[in-house]
Hints:
Elements: E1 6-12, H1 19-31, E2 37-43, H2 50-60, E3 65-70, H3 76-86, E4 91-94, H4 106-113, E5 119-124, H5 131-148, E6 160-163, H6 164-172, H7 180-187, E7 191-196, H8 210-223, H9 227-257, H10 264-296, E8 304-308
Helix pairs in contact: 5-8, 6-7
Pfam family, one: Glycos_transf_2
EC number: 2.4.2.53
Protein name: Undecaprenyl-phosphate 4-deoxy-4-formamido-L-arabinose transferase
Amino acid sequence: MNTPQLSVVIPVYNEEEGLQTLFDRLYPTLDNLGISYEIVFINDGSRDRSAAILREQFQRRHDVTRVILFNGNFGQHMAITAGFEHARGARVVTLDADLQNPPEEISKLLAKMDEGYDYIGSIRKQRNDSWWRHMGSRTMNRLRERITNIKMTDQGCMLRAYDRPLIDAINSCKEVNTFVPALAYTFARNPAEVMVEHEERALGESKYSLYSLIRLNFDLMTGFSVVPLQWFSMAGIAISLMSAFFVVFLLVRRLFVGPEAEGLFTLFAIAFFLIGLTLFGIGLLGEYIGRIYLQVRHRPRYLIQAVLDKTE
């Protein structure tokens, strides 16, 4: 079997309204590249007609189309992981199905890889998202970089290119919770970034709520660094020292000034602060223990209902 030069991995979740537009733009774009390619769609448990539309597209272009049908919804990054495990290309590009990242920009990533880079990230030139997503993404990017030392200018842009050795390294990992771009960055020998266009979602709606974005970034920071635990440990040491000094201060004050009750509410405020900090630390510790718990159960990361492939 000939190895294609390029594999395009596209997770799909409830995108029936925009799939035909994606097909109309993606296939001509890849045909014009003049290289052999395959497109690997992963239907992540869609509840609409996405699976049926992907089946129809496979029948029309079975020469370059492969479809993986999940048995349920396992998340975007598990879908990308499954796509990586089935992709055969020497280079792999990930692309969202919502067309916010134009498929015409794929050539920019491949041209950058031709310069000797093994991992190409992308930066959206002009984001067409809501203001709260834009500001939240910028804030979380800065915080994530300080905690994990992973330098991705635009972590929310999934238009990325990976060289085959990098894909093989990612496939060797069996993490239950992961963030694929960050995982690739830890393995990349020579990463780079390019500026790409960004379009407003024309059809359908975003699959990421505010809670989902917070949850994703929490997983990212706890999955690639123990710095949050170290910060909390240092905060505990600092508070313990301040508490010791405060006890000495209260003792000296009692000896020289005498007993008084005016500082009662101050003590209450300090106690509530320390209780809140303790609960936060317990929750943070629980995040790491929870990740260990999910990993050691050794349950399947995803279940595949069917694979549509002309060779299978």
